């Protein structure tokens, strides 16, 4: 394992998140058994006093895990110079393949669960009766298991990084051997058009749901947001990489992200906006209408602004590169 400032910071925050969230999930899951919708106000007040600290610790722990998403890629980037033959993050990932790629992929998907729970908690605290208390307590266990699995993969990957020679990303992506690798490393524009269509649909549906939050529109919004999250890295890797890097036969999203600060910023905005749209679509509606409406509007407004900004920034950068 290679130790530097970022690896130490990452490990400390990851351990702190585990130390806060896991015990909170254990206690919260036990308390959830005694929380009933028909419980009296006095009984629920007693339970609330017992779980107040649990909820706070879990919220802090999950917030720390969200902070670790960008820090993960920054930490791996800081290790590139220590790995002979590595030209980008792909080289670092090769040291512990396929687990390293799984760990990075989880940084795009798993935070949806953390964000959902945090929004659920925020909505529940806006309502005096706290109708979502039992639900968010029951969700503590599966969310904690995800956190443990993700943290375990992170520690495994970081521990495997050592000054061992690896091949550059060209050998991995430009000369793929498996059929799956060939499919995602082709120069087809299919993924780009799918990403553009689904991203635009997610923005349009966010506006539509804000005006008419029916179950049908919300379900379609979740599908569009999910599709945007999946197709974006594929679009960046397959076709946009060749355009942005001015290398017709080089496919590597890691090289694209490394090229300048605007691309990772645009990527973060696209993924973050898609997260907001997904959470908005899955937000429980059987609560106080006013509180639900206010939270839904915030999420949808954020989704439109963040996702739209990311797609616009990426489009502008792509057009500028094409014109050169």
Question: How is this fold's topology laid out?
Answer:
Layout: H1 5-32, H2 41-78, H3 89-94, H4 99-109, H5 111-125, H6 133-138, H7 140-160, H8 169-174, H9 179-184, H10 190-211, H11 215-244, H12 253-259, H13 262-282, H14 289-323
Helix pairs in contact: 1-2, 1-7, 2-5, 2-7, 4-7, 5-13, 10-11, 10-13, 10-14, 11-12, 11-13, 13-14
Brief summary:
Helix content is 78%, strand content 0%. It is built from 14 helices and no strands. The radius of gyration is 21 Å and the shape is globular.
Give the number of DSSP strands. Answer: 0
- Characterize the overall form: globular
Strand content: under 5%
Rg over C-alpha atoms, rounded to the nearest angstrom: 21 Å
Number of helices: 14
Q: Specify the biggest β-sheet.
A: none
- Secondary structural class: mainly alpha
Low-confidence stretches: none
On the 0-100 scale, what is the average pLDDT?
89
Number of domains: 2
Oligomeric state of the chains? single chain
Q: What is the chain-wise order of helices and strands?
A: HHHHHHHHHHHHHH
